[in-house]
Amino acid sequence: MSLLVVGSIAFDTIETAHRRVDNVLGGSASYFSTCASFFTKPRLVGVVGSDFSHEHIEFYRARGIDTSGLEIAEGRTFRWHGRYQGDLSSALTVSVELNVFADFRPKIPAAFRDSRFVFLANGSPKTQLAVLEQVAHPDFVLADSMNLWIETERAPLLDLMQRVDGLILNNHEAVQLSGRSNLIAAARKILEMGPRVLIIKKAEHGAFLMTRDEFFAIPAFPLGDVNDPTGAGDSFAGGMMGYLANTRAHSFAHLKRGLLYGTVTASYAIEDFSLERLKRLHRTEIEHRYQDFLRLITP
Amino acid sequence: MSLLVVGSIAFDTIETAHRRVDNVLGGSASYFSTCASFFTKPRLVGVVGSDFSHEHIEFYRARGIDTSGLEIAEGRTFRWHGRYQGDLSSALTVSVELNVFADFRPKIPAAFRDSRFVFLANGSPKTQLAVLEQVAHPDFVLADSMNLWIETERAPLLDLMQRVDGLILNNHEAVQLSGRSNLIAAARKILEMGPRVLIIKKAEHGAFLMTRDEFFAIPAFPLGDVNDPTGAGDSFAGGMMGYLANTRAHSFAHLKRGLLYGTVTASYAIEDFSLERLKRLHRTEIEHRYQDFLRLITP
Hints:
Two copies of one chain form a homodimer. By secondary structure, the first copy, chain A, is α/β, with parallel strands linked by helices. In chain A, 38% of the residues lie in helices and 24% in strands.
């Protein structure tokens, strides 16, 4: 079933203790749609500059991603330069150039307005709300956010939380948004603020899913060799929403399985820099790791 | 089946943002044996000072703990004063008085030397080795350690690791001991150093169990109201080893279930200060939460 993603497309420069890569393909919408493309044909809405390489657009298309909502604007593509410390648990932002992304006012093509599954990748809540206005009657909308918007655009974020089905945050964002230091108490508080479904991502510590009545928690897939955690959260959301859109369902049982698929796609994404591992990935590998993961976490 | 624990018995002074308690019962052997006592009759070896209250000894006995290895020495009982910050994730040690624990040379009573399950609570690896010398032929020995011994007594610790079946560490200790920042790589490295079984505790992020061929990970039990995390690790080990000793087994399937029982006993321990929640706990509550936990983590 139709899955729409609205988010960023970026050129990333990434440094770890072992390697540096310059101006590689990145951005929330790239990671999300690539991971979702193993399950369904995502509809991508985003903006790039005139410096964007045609080869990347060809890659999206080869993955079955509908790029008819990809705007090519005058100017340079969004750029992010990050540096990871030893254990890769947090990135230091060396520089950000918003470039064409600064004036991004997403226009949802007419053919995308009937999308039933929608992912509002991290962005200004005002922009996220403007996207929602353009979608007719979605079945399941999931929104991401970040510390910046929690600090600077709290009112529109609270408004957005009333209008989406689900919110996906990392543990730090959940504590910040709720004002509760205990993560379970934080999650309960956030559910009182609007969304029916809350997903908390904890990087190498796994994730959990909470509604007012139900709860499901999983550890991360055990990886001894992580090379680049960039895009892990969006890869997680992409695998999850791709699975849901493909099954046309969002019951708690489906959300649980979505969490597992999201964990699997994210685990592949972080094995290599940029989208390199995802470019080499086959659907059968996803199924194999899904089965392995089930075995490692089933009591 | 027989379960021996050798560890500390302490008077703790604990401060959180909400409350302070002074000179309450604590210590690794107290938490461990109390939690294990819901499954079996643990044999306790430890030392207290002449200031130790008879009421605490009565408590151990009422819980079915064999206190015939409890030494009462001239002097004061071991004292620890800790202060937790807002999210309770780490304790600042305000003061430590080793007192009678400084000269503790555990003597295992003759009647305890046939113990089949043994927990060597955190202590000098030299002391832990000396305990092992006094146990005839245990089936399953689990040892705990800490940053201090990893730094200052590495050689005896490496020796100990060759002689135990399992090692239980928190994530920070595993990284320190192995020199690997990735926790999965750290665990693999530690298994190469000797023990057949490694258990990594990650507090609110759960735990995992690893052998050379197998792996099992779980999240923590979701608690919105944690009051005092002191003793969580020993309560975890106590529930786990109590379950194993009771079933007289330590297969991987049993270890997995032990991890769940350990999570449950630890979750109760941290609901209140000192051993207060454990004093009010019933075995039926453990079973109920075990079933709840299964439901919350089963894919």
